[in-house]
Amino acid sequence: MSGRFGARLAEQVAAHGPLCAGIDPHAPLLAAWGLADDAAGVERFGRTVVEALAGHVACVKPQAAFFERHGSRGVAALERVIADARDAGLLTIVDAKRGDIGSTMAGYADAFVGDSPLAGDAVTVSPYLGFGSLRPLLDLAAERGRGVFVLALTSNPEGASVQHAVGADGRPVARAVAEAAAAENAGAAPFGDVGLVVGATVGPAVAGLGIDLDAVNGPLLAPGVGAQGATAADLQQVFGDARRLVLASSSREVLAAGPDPAGLRDAARRSADAVRAALAV
């Protein structure tokens, strides 16, 4: 790793736009691409996306579950996709959403931000065993120059029962998570390495919970753009003055244009242009 994740990401966003292309080889997409729903199919899918989009998007986000469902061979396929991206200079956020305590969290840290072949440039994690439970991973990520995206406000209806709940200190849980991330990023420029996952379709929840996303000073990974329907008005309502920090995630809208590499690149370019215009940054 050369330099901090936040600085590397800022460079890629400036060059290619605020779009992170998902790599989600689920069964219907594999079938649409003419690929088998097995480890070889998901590997071909992921490596095709990397080859097509390297140098054309800020980063890619392989969803670990779609590889892991094929067992050890699927995990090996994910490792090769990550290695291809690294060799191509393409930033990778491994969407693993890990979260645990103590030595188990330290094991996840070794796997996803240490020297393991599963380690990309960043990883998604869940803080719902307490933000402090992430400390082993946060510390190792900082040591290795990798990034961490912490789930904060997700768009699924079930998430609100936890994320909107008020803790003993009077703060909503999602706000406490955002403020903890801000503390990790204090003083970093152009922004820090600890980002949040905030759904682009959460509507007025950010303001309603009193969350200052601009103060997070870290990248805001925003699922919900593209096929999930977030509009320019949605992005402006959710992120407000923090729009400069947004990294929009789009999967189906880009991946549906494959397996033709030119089609993937064209779709990614259209999505990046639309996101840039929607964010007005």
Automatic annotation (TrEMBL):
PROSITE patterns: OMPDECASE (PS00156)
SMART domains: OMPdecase
Family matches, as InterPro entries: Aldolase_TIM, OMPdecase_AS, OMPdecase_type-2, OMPdeCOase_dom, RibuloseP-bd_barrel
Active site residues of this protein: K97
Enzyme Commission number(s) from the entry: 4.1.1.23
Domain Orotidine 5'-phosphate decarboxylase: 18-267
GO terms for biological process, alphabetical: 'de novo' pyrimidine nucleobase biosynthetic process; 'de novo' UMP biosynthetic process
Keywords annotated in UniProt: Decarboxylase, Lyase, Pyrimidine biosynthesis
Pfam families xrefs: OMPdecase (PF00215)
The keyword Lyase is assigned to this record: yes
Pathway in which this enzyme or protein is active: Pyrimidine metabolism; UMP biosynthesis via de novo pathway; UMP from orotate: step 2/2
Lyase listed as a keyword: yes
Catalytic activity: orotidine 5'-phosphate + H(+) = UMP + CO2
GO molecular function, one term: orotidine-5'-phosphate decarboxylase activity
Top EC category: lyase
Family stated for the protein in its record: Belongs to the OMP decarboxylase family. Type 2 subfamily.
NCBIfam families (alphabetical): pyrF_sub2
Protein name: Orotidine 5'-phosphate decarboxylase
Organism: Kineococcus rhizosphaerae
